[in-house]
């Protein structure tokens, strides 16, 4: 390969690495309880820095004492000491873009689901094809909702069977409906959510309904909680926690609306709930946005532990606290998923690690739901999702 194409490839690999580093940093910061103005500003900085890197590459490549120039000329050259930081960073970018990112992408692509996931089927319903324009309400960014390829109205109804060895015998076949991240703000319209609930109600009534947070992005749309989510029913109990977006819209009133809709709002804590005549411990974890985290002191050790956690970032907390089953939302599957690569930006301190699906570690099973909507009405190759889980003591995969 001659000089110019080689330089182009090197610059492209370095740019990929640079974009990875700044995107992972952005994801990490968005997983933390930082002020919204700071996060918005940092998102803008990240976009500028990623795009500006190509210009920086050009500057480095045209610098009279560049390391790459020395390599191409087959003569020893070393950058001026004042450039060492820049060249060192480019070297890190080359390693990340050329080795780390491809390796992680391959590992994620070939990763097998955990043994506890016995089966999983998904039925997709294209509500845009059925209802069209009335699905776009009077909320923010309706033009984004209309973008070609935007899949915010293609809803996946996922049915998963999970084998949990410590499941009480009476709970064999127990079903849990998981709904997360409805983000009421007007776009999508009420019709969208009503149609989704209509669809859910055509199926059998679950033992439990679990709502995993992020109900509202405006104060006025709190009034949708009762008529939409209140229609869901359970033979056992309906449970709910809050998410980070609810914190900005009078959380106590959100809790009150959920309570009025028939939900036990767990908050950051635990309570004993009896289902099918068997007591279990239900834990809520709304951290890191609501503090302090739940204190499980005094929890009966022999009981099954179900945890509703808005973010999957609490997975290792769940493992440390012997949670049997953890239900999460928040990350929306990343919202935009690229073929082979998958998600790019995920608001999590672990970046893409827990972007969707089922995870298992040391007896704790975590299910991460992609959620039903989002503050920005944009999804690409990442359909909204409603989950129905069936629990069994049966054979693992
Ligand atoms: Fe959310």
Q: What composes the largest sheet?
A: 7 strands, mixed
Instruction: Note the total helix count.
Output: 10
Report the sheet-strand fraction: 15-25%
CATH architecture term of the largest domain: 4-Layer Sandwich
Shape: globular
Which residues form runs of ≥5 with pLDDT under 50? none
| Whole-number count of domains | 2
Bound molecules: fe (ii) ion
Mean pLDDT, rounded to whole units? 93
N to C succession of SSEs: HHHHEHHEEHEHEHEEEEHEEEEEE
Total count of strands: 15
Q: What is the CATH class name of the largest domain?
A: Alpha Beta
Through-space gap between termini: 48 Å
Helix content: 25-40%
The H-level CATH homologous superfamily of the largest domain, spelled out, is Metallo-dependent phosphatases
Strand order of the largest sheet: 1-2-15-3-4-5-6
